[in-house]
Amino acid sequence: MTTVATIAEFLEHFAPPRLAEEWDNVGLLVGSRDAQVYRVMTCLTLTAESVAEAVRDRAELIVTHHPLPFRPLRRLTSETVEGRLLLELIAARVAVYSPHTAFDSAGRGINQRLAEGLELLDIAPLGPDASDPTIGSGRFGQLDPPTPLGELASRAARFLKIDGMHLVGDPRQAIRRVAVACGSAGELLGRAIACKCDCFVTGETRFHTSLEARAEKISLLLVGHFASERFAVEQLAELLGVQFPDLKIWASRAERDPLQWFSPSCPANQAGC
């Protein structure tokens, strides 16, 4: 019999909670550890769409990258989006587990997979873990041979299956050392500079961080928060499927990036063309 506890224990081994940032909220967030599990859905974020999918398809457990709840709750009511989602999950007896930043930093976590997807060599953490310097926050590695920034951007787009991204820097610049950090990771720019990286790839960052990068002569590729992490949620579903072959496990089919590219020159002004 597979229970919530069985899957939680596997996830805690795969992405140890001690790797999570101090401000984070990881682990089993909703539900009973003793509950039996037959169906598991992974997703990037709990939204009205992903919650409805899990309830409709009778999942007993959701493994979501972004935690809900994230901060302590003073009340749980239907007057907030967060409250409505949690109440719907509780009513349907759906448990919620979030590995979040522990998954980002794990040995086979998001940043390692992102670095490998960009074909980096000699990959190492930007911020090594005190207990194990082979893991930790972010990653950086080498490109051999050096690659023009524009070509690296195209490689990232193919790997992440996106149509475009924001770029800071000259597309012709030869890039030799690259730092990566999924999500919103502008705070790691200083580490990327300290590691003498020519380019920093992340999901999103502040305008002033982009200005700082330009002043420090380090290029940025901003691939989008959703794209920088969603691919790993799909891979996590595959991993869980191998570990628990008797369960039905899938990555949410309903969730979408809330941000779309829009161009007035598109036919009928359609977003995403």
What this model shows, in words?
By secondary structure, this protein is an alpha/beta fold. It is 33% helix and 23% strand. The protein is built from nine helices and 13 strands. It has a six-stranded mixed sheet. A five-stranded mixed sheet has the order 1-4-3-2-13. The protein is globular and about 55 Å long. The model has no long low-confidence stretch (mean pLDDT 95).
List keywords for this structure.
273 residues, six-stranded mixed β-sheet, 9 helices, globular
Short description:
The chain contains 9 helices and 13 strands.
Secondary structure topology:
Elements (H helix, E strand, L loop, with lengths): L3 H11 L12 E4 L8 E5 L4 H9 L4 E4 L16 H11 L3 E4 L1 H6 L4 H8 L3 E4 L2 E2 L7 E2 L1 E10 H12 L5 E3 L5 E11 L4 H6 L4 E6 L2 H9 L3 E4 L2 H19 L4 E4 L22
Parallel strand pairs: 2-3, 2-13, 3-4, 10-11, 11-12
Antiparallel strand pairs: 1-4, 5-8, 6-7, 8-10, 9-12
What share of the residues lie within helices?
A: 25-40%
Instruction: Give the overall pLDDT as a whole number.
Output: 95
Identify the quaternary structure here.
single chain
Structural class comes to: alpha/beta
How much strand content do the residues show?
A: 15-25%
**Count of strand segments:** 13
Low-confidence segments, ≥5 residues, pLDDT <50?
Answer: none
Radius of gyration: 19 Å
- Which strand order do you get reading across the main beta sheet? 5-8-10-11-12-9
Report, as a whole number of angstroms, the end-to-end distance.
47 Å
Biggest β-sheet: count, sense, barrel? 6 strands, mixed
Cα shape: globular
How large is the count of helical segments?
9
H/E element string?
HEEHEHEHHEEEEHEEHEHEHE
